[in-house]
Amino acid sequence: MFAAEVADRGARFRAVSPTELVDALSDEIAAAISFGLTDDLGATLPWAPRPHFADGDQPETMLARGLLGIAASGSILVSEPRHDRLRIFLARRLILLLPAAGIVAGVRDAAPVLRGLAAAGRFATFVTGPSRTSDIEQISIIGAHGPGDLAVFVVEDWRPDGG
């Protein structure tokens, strides 16, 4: 259900094992003009490709961790510190890695995680497909308010927190 919902919202979906993830990310990042990696994900995946973009610049492609996936809507919950949050939403392409065990049925199932983030003073955002908007004439524009391209990798048997 989650895979179909992600695809219905215009994102690319791929389920991978931890060993397949390295090649899958290499393929995805190969065409990137510039590439960034959130601090949280960089600490979790020490083998991940190192970011390549100049200080002060915005990377074209950003790689980040999803905390939860909502099966009913294909949404992915992300929570990053301010500097990474800005890079995620200013990037043209966003690649989210999500542990398969992090997929829940609906938003109500995400409530404990959302409460924990709020108690820790962290922002949380649900990402549902590439950014899209329409003007008054209903002309759809993709990428106007966030990434215009979204890839979601669900990683089987991945425990990013070591648990």
Topology:
Layout: H1 2-8, E1 12-16, H2 18-29, E2 35-37, H3 39-44, E3 61-65, E4 68-70, E5 75-78, H4 82-90, E6 93-99, E7 103-104, H5 111-119, E8 125-127, E9 132-134, E10 140-142, E11 149-155
Parallel strand pairs: 1-11, 2-3, 3-6, 4-7, 6-11
Antiparallel strand pairs: 4-5, 5-8, 9-10
Oligomer: single chain
The CATH class is Alpha Beta
Domains (count): 1
Helix and strand content put the structural class at alpha/beta
Percentage of residues assigned to helices: 25-40%
Low-confidence stretches: none
Strand content: 25-35%
Tally of DSSP β-strands: 11
By CATH, the topology is Rossmann fold
**SSE order in H/E notation?**
HEHEHEEEHEEHEEEE
Treating each run of at least 4 consecutive H or I residues as one helix, how many helices? Answer: 5
**Tell me about the biggest sheet?**
5 strands, parallel
Calculate the terminal CA-CA distance, rounded to whole Å: 26 Å
Identify the strand order in the major beta sheet: 1-11-6-3-2
